[in-house]
Design a protein that fits this description.
By secondary structure, this protein is mainly α. It is 56% helix and 3% strand.
């Protein structure tokens, strides 16, 4: 229902924490007097969230399929490198196709660059660790809270984002 979605968006906004000690209102009131989440997602946010989620879903499905085919994949460095490099390349390419709103471009560019660097290292013979593969946005500078809240609210509207919590990109969920 709608109230649960509102509560979820509110909870997401709170999860990001930090900033100004919480004095920023998370909910404002529109001209009709109805409560509105500050940072209500734009069409650009929804399009971007969809692109991110589709890229992540493709990446996770590829890694999962390869690990299912060979449960010892992470024990075979050479095979892991051959397997991971093209998956990471495609992930970087898929992510790069997602068009970030202006206030998310720094985050987006840093995320794409990090994945490209992981792919390059794999091609150069440096196998990614399971942690790197699962926490691929680690050390990517996160956007401001309000922007994260907007993106989280956008993701909640999209079925392709249901299996992947977009807040995982911001390093808030282990």
């Amino acid at each position: 229902g709608v109230p649960a979605l509102g509560a979820g968006a509110f909870a997401s906004a709170c999860v990001f924490g930090g900033g100004d000690g919480g004095s920023t209102p998370v909910v404002s009131v529109d001209s009709a007097g109805s409560p509105v989440l500050v940072g209500t997602p734009t069409q650009g946010d929804i399009t971007y969230a969809g692109g991110l989620c589709r890229a992540v879903n493709t990446y996770v499905a590829a890694i999962t399929a390869e690990t299912a085919k060979d449960p010892n994949l992470f024990g075979d460095q050479a095979k892991l490198l051959r397997t991971a490099a093209p998956i990471l390349d495609r992930f970087a390419s898929d992510l790069d196709k997602a068009r970030a709103p202006k206030d998310l471009s720094k985050f987006h560019d840093a995320l794409v660059k990090r994945i490209e660097e992981m792919a390059k290292r794999a091609k150069d013979g440096q196998a990614p660790t399971p942690e790197e593969l699962s926490r691929f946005s680690k050390d990517v500078p996160v956007p401001p809270e309000q922007v994260q809240a907007r993106l989280a609210a956008a993701a909640k509207q999209l079925p392709e984002c249901a299996s992947f919590g977009i807040d995982n990109l911001f390093g808030t969920v282990e």
